[in-house]
Design a protein that fits this description.
This protein is an alpha+beta fold. Helices cover 23% and strands 31% of the residues. It folds into three domains: 89 residues, Pseudouridine synthase (2-Layer Sandwich), CATH 3.30.2350; 139 residues, Pseudouridine synthase; 62 residues, PUA domain (Archaeosine Trna-guanine Transglycosylase, Chain: A, domain 4). β14, α8 and β15 form a beta-alpha-beta unit. The N terminus and C terminus are likely disordered.
Length: 327
């Protein structure tokens, strides 16, 4: 009888993956599940199959942190081609129109890019996972249908031209750019809308996520490294602890009163409001007690992380019995 593989369902941590082109984000999650022997695995923001770069994957108890780790800004290195419009707004779709962009230049593109900085409205593309009428848009698109979609407000924090190349095809220049944006931004739609404002149309040709909140490509591991670490039993060495991930992603408030920390671990609203906007982590020593938000005059827990028993001091050992004292 073969030896049963040891379960590693108690593995808690955050794994930053450098996703290659080809697999879906779900495929990456399935790979990590197999490598870690861990059922509870989730990611913090989908990348299209053709896109590469930072995909943050949470294992074990860290899956409870997904909504907090995915809320940060994203930074992408992208390229679009001017004058080519496609059904999917990227290179995978059917070409709907070709127009000459030879009359444009780098200065004109820079001028238009500045107009997209700040808050903008985007209509989700038909190939997205947004639900309309209970059905995902990409499922509707596969039937050859198109439906009305409501625009969504997103924020473009920074948008910078990286390169303008019209040497290979003057009618269809390639434009490389860097964009830092809020969660939920569709870079393919950004490229499409930039092309529309330029009057020639555009479509995305490549996309690489270089940062997801505080996690960058310098933190990321490729799939070969991850598989090798799993085979050698060293996967834990690639993981960030949940505490380290939270400390990177959220502002923190430290408490030093053990009784207050214990009350918070018990889920009691024991901490006064901290005068902060949005969510923040509360720590006690090296432990994250939980994720909180000010509501009225109290800090209210959105997620209690540390269990009360994890704060209880170890019981002191009984002193050795002196000789001659037995009865």
């Amino acid at each position: 009888m073969g030896r049963k593989r040891r379960s590693t369902d108690d593995t808690d941590g955050v794994l930053v993956v450098d996703k290659p082109a080809g697999p879906t984000s779900h495929d990456i999650v399935q790979t990590v599940r197999r490598v870690a022997g861990q059922k509870r695995v989730g990611h913090t923001g989908t990348l299209d199959p053709a896109a590469t770069g930072v995909l943050v994957v949470c294992l074990g108890r860290a899956t409870r942190l997904v909504q907090y780790l995915q809320a940060g800004q994203k930074t992408y290195a992208a390229q679009m081609v001017l004058g080519v419009v496609t059904s999917s707004q990227d290179a995978d779709g059917e070409v709907l129109a070709r127009r000459s962009a030879a009359g444009l230049d780098e200065q004109r593109v820079c001028e238009v890019l500045t107009r997209f900085q700040g808050e903008i409205d985007q209509v989700p593309p038909m190939v997205s996972a947004v639900r309309v009428g209970g059905e995902r848009l990409h499922e509707i698109a596969r039937r050859g249908e198109e439906v009305e979609r409501d625009a969504r407000r997103v924020t473009i924090h920074d948008l910078m031209l990286d390169a303008y190349d019209a040497r290979t095809d003057p009618d269809h220049p390639r434009v490389s750019f860097l964009v830092t944006c809020s969660a939920g931004t569709y870079v393919r739609t950004l490229a499409h809308d930039i092309g529309e404002m330029l009057g020639v149309g555009a479509s995305l040709t490549s996309l690489r996520r270089v940062a997801n909140g505080p996690f960058g490509v310098e933190d990321a591991h490729d799939l070969d490294t991850i598989r090798a670490a799993g085979e050698s039993g060293d996967l834990a060495g690639l993981l960030l602890s949940p505490e380290a991930a939270v400390a990177r992603a959220l502002p923190t408030v430290e408490v030093d009163d053990p009784d207050l920390a214990l009350a918070m671990a018990q889920g009691k609203p024991a901490l006064s409001a901290q005068g902060r906007e949005g969510t923040y982590a509360v720590t006690f020593g090296e432990r994250v007690l939980g994720i909180y938000r000010d509501r009225g005059d109290r800090a209210r827990s959105e997620l209690v992380w540390t269990r009360p028993e994890e704060l209880a001091p170890s019981a002191p050992a009984d002193p050795p019995e002196a000789e001659g004292t037995r009865t």
